[in-house]
Fold Low-specificity L-threonine aldolase.
Amino acid sequence: MIDLRSDTVTRPSAAMLDAMMNAATGDDVYRDDPTVNALEAEAAAISGKEAALFFPTGTQANLVALLCHCQRGDEYIVGQQAHNYKYEAGGAAVLGSIQPQPILAAEDGTLPLADVAAAIKPDDIHFARTRLLSLENTHHGRVLPLGYLEQAWHFTRERGLALHIDGARIFNAVVAQRVTLAEIARYCDTLTICLSKGLGTPVGSLLCGDSAYIEQARRWRKMTGGGMRQAGILAAAGRYALQHNVTRLQEDHDNAAWLAEQLRALGVEVISQQTNMLFVQVPSGQTEALQRWMHAADILISVGTRTRMVTHLDVCRADLQQVIARWQAFLQSAG
């Protein structure tokens, strides 16, 4: 199978599985799993934060981040298409009684600060209390500019807001901008890091922040069912990923750019391509047929009028050549 639906479909390599099988373990709820402790210490160090906490999923890490920043009746400002607003089942509202205030992102993935300012509620008993600005980096593959993050940081300091970054693909931003994680994370109070997308682990995310915040997050993690026992087996995959799978993300970016170039040559309308995400326009009358055509060749793509394809470590250039050949054959048959 050639699977371009998402970078969540990656499978652990033999070397990663070996690291997992040989991991030292303890009971993480008692804080005595040495591999989990080492992963959290490493994440804190590279992000420039005081502490980090290991979670089974990115959705839970984002939920706990919001639960720590906001109380019942509070509000967070977030992008209309942001994952922790649109794609996490309304967890902040349902489980935390936290009101989201979504606004439209600009074309580059940023939330215009003038629009954020307009969305902040007055200090009035009629309104939810605005407590947090939540950004996503990368957003639909787009890297948030460092200059914007610095402006957002100072904006939130002036407005008395906290700033959280959903960094599910933040290492794609690190590689694309040729900076360290700490250079990005200096402009936020907290951030999440997903290990199971482009970094290739089977499971796991991290939440980074100051020590007091992470202690609060530890309680919320337990309450929401995320306290694990011999989690070092999973944490070992995360350590392997941070040490071996970050710089290779450039291959995914290059492959996505190559795929975009080849599709343009076939006459396919490319909407955008940044980092490892490519969006193309497919005529509405062709979507179902293209989906079937690709699947018959063991190529998995979620085809719609706006089709997203995501490159990752389990897709090589030769695989993409097969995708192009198959797509070309489809266009010839349709024409």
Q: What stands out?
A: The chain has 14 helices and twelve strands. Residues 317-334 form the longest helix (18 residues).
